[in-house]
Description:
By secondary structure, this protein is mainly alpha-helical. It has helices at about 10-15, 15-20, 25-45, 50-60, 65-75, 80-90, 105-140, 160-185, 200-205, 210-220, 240-265, 290-305, 310-315, 325-350, 360-370, 375-385, 390-405, 415-420, 430-435, 445-465; strands at about 145-150, 155-160, 270, 355. α7 (about 105-140) runs antiparallel to α8 and α11 runs parallel beside α14.
Amino acid sequence: MYEFFQxxxxxxxxxxxxxxxxxxxxxxxxxxxLWVALAECEKELGLNITDVQINELKSHIYDIDFExxxxxxxxVRHDVMAHVLTYGEQCPQAKPIIxxxxxxxxxxDNTDLIVMREGLVLVKEKLAILIDKxxxxxxxxxxxxxxxxxxxxxxxxxxxGKRATLWLMDLVMDYEDLEVLLSQFKMRGVxxxxxxxxxxxxxxxxxxxxxxxxxxxxxxxMGFEASLTVTGQTYTRKIxxxxxxxxxxxxxxxxxxxxxxxxxxxxxxxEEPFESKQIGSSAMAYKRNPMRSERISSLCxxxxxLSTSPQLVAATQWFERTLDDSAxxxxxxxxxxxxxxxxxxxxxxxxxxxxxxxxxxxxxxxxELPFMATExxxxxxxxxxxxxxxxxxxxxxxxxxxxxxxxxxxxxxxxLDRIVNDPIFNxxxxxxxxxxxxxxxxxxxxxxxxxxxxxxxTPIRNKHLKALGKxxxxxx
Length: 476
């Protein structure tokens, strides 16, 4: 096996749950379930199909002879017919009625929709777990003042927990997109070679009602409330584009979050989990690199790049269908799911063990707080008889000089000393210290965290109570 390329998504990243969803066994057993459902419904609507034939088909849904199917496909160059013939060899009595009236897209497209829906359900659950874990982190750190940044320049204070809600807001929007997409998910149904249902109309001797019922009955047997109202030979490839669009949205959110975490780890304020035997660098033994966040960012870039493939396929299909979608779909759809699955697992692992260094955060806050407190200092000096305009100019000059001390000479910020020593302010050190409590500058950050969790997170938690608390073990 080491002589040939191995897909890293399988070997290193994706979970067993998602790999099973996109496995050949799941794919081809769903083909057989669809053939059983079609035969059952056709029998119920009056076609000459026996219970013996249907029971024979049911007894061989899972014992698929993959080697025999591959052997036949080499000869016939058609994957669906290879599996029809393989199934027929296992079910000699049912062989004459397998795939009756159907086209390849009946099993191929309907199975793709079934598998994508299963994948979306798993993604939704893992996203809910991540939202839960991140919200617990936000709640536990909602009172810790930290520098806010705009343009990556120190700005007004926020809190560690409030910043986490910014990541969460994006993820909640992704969760909502998943819910909408799943609510819209329909089966391709029983539509025939170009979507006109002509073959089924012929089977039922021109009885339109039975053809309509067949389409509805098969969809319900396969767990769908409805099938698409119209299709060509295939379901519209807009569905694939929408699915990858939602996965792309999750990738965008996780990439943004892990970019922030990587920068926070660089300034030593927050670190992702780091195990006792973990090596940060092969050369620099002291390093604690944000490897997991970097891995998420790397895989998210791949998911974002994949999202263009189904868009191009959907835009360039000709009339009722062309086959330039097939090879593309096999790669882009499955790998998009496998990659985002890995991203969510790693993100859940990171969110379970984030370490906050409050002393470092406080040091960074206090280095900048004198600049942020200047407006309050002006107001306090005005109360003691000062002229607001003169005080504003004095603070501007002192701030520029203090900034030079820090940036050019590498010294500590001495703005407060300058203010205390300038008689125009008429303030003592104690007066100024009273104006330098970081928690006076965080606004409604803690209350916003509480409100966010109540309004946005609690409804999601309530839908996934059984899944919450799952721990994720990474492959590497």
